[in-house]
Amino acid sequence: MTTTPDLATQPSPTAAGSGANASEAFRASSGRRGAAATSTERADRLVRRTLEAIHQVVREEEVTYPEFQAVKRWLMDVGEGGEWPLFLDVFVEHEVEKVAARTQHGSAGTIEGPYYLPGQQRLGPVATLPMRVDEQGERLVFSGQVRDLDGRPLAGAEVDFWQADADGYYSGFAPHLPDGNLRGVIVTDDEGRFTITTIKPAPYQIPTDGPTGAMIAAAGWHPWRPAHLHLMVRADGHRQVTTQLYFAGGEWLDSDVASATKDELVLHTEHTANGWTAVYDFVLEPA
Ligand code: MBD
Ligand code: FE
């Protein structure tokens, strides 16, 4: 075990810093995602059913005025702290993803989470992710192949990849990390193959100093996600897969606070003289 001697001198990311950034990144991405075309009928139904679900909890749990006012203040804090993307992606996105997955064939997806940033450096099929010269963490060589449903390799497919560092922080959402650190778009070769050299990320902890962390602590839950890699895999004419990959035996795999693990998303790593290797292939369905 090594210690980080300069930890005290580094500006450490705060909940306000990372959460507010996630709000800005989300607003900036609204063009990419497109606005939902919601009819009056659909809005009526969804809003009414959501409110009914809340009313039911109030009745059945006999929610008191002090509890109601505490919730109101907490909701205000989530917004002012910029934590709505964090909160919703941790506690709601997994269900939206499972509904989307009902019509999805090919590789399993899971939630995107709040820390994707578009427009990262494009890299060739055999690439090392941008990282600091003294990037901490065990070396990981992650490789695989992108194919279609018929098993044909997809050349020129994009593996849009992002991950936390060995302290669990994401570049773009932590003031001490260089832009683009441990992010990149890897383009597959003629056989649809890619090889990415990076480091093993640490588990991710929901910031404990913000309203989401306060709610988790108040409920007596733990704030951890298992260590994971994020990817979007896309190819012309094919439906994009947004997913995450986890590490066999990793801590928190069975109790992810974001409920986003799936058995088929667990990597089986091998330890070599040079660090870890992992192989995972992706299958994309037609768009
Ligand atoms: C993460 O790193 C993440 O992947 C999700 C889904 C939510 C919070 C932090
Ligand atoms: Fe993540």
From TrEMBL:
Keywords: Dioxygenase, Iron, Metal-binding, Oxidoreductase. Residues 1-42 are annotated as: Disordered. This is Catechol 1,2-dioxygenase. Residues 142-170 form the Intradiol ring-cleavage dioxygenases domain. It comes from the Bacteria. SUPFAM superfamilies: Aromatic compound dioxygenase (SSF49482). Residues 1-15 have a biased composition (Polar residues). Its cofactor is Fe(3+). Residues 22-37 have a biased composition (Low complexity). Belongs to the intradiol ring-cleavage dioxygenase family. Pfam families: Dioxygenase_C (PF00775), Dioxygenase_N (PF04444). It comes from Pseudonocardia yuanmonensis. InterPro entries: 1_2-CTD_multi_dom, Catechol_dOase_N, Cchol_dOase_actb, Intradiol_dOase_C, Intradiol_dOase_core, Intradiol_RC_Dioxygenase.
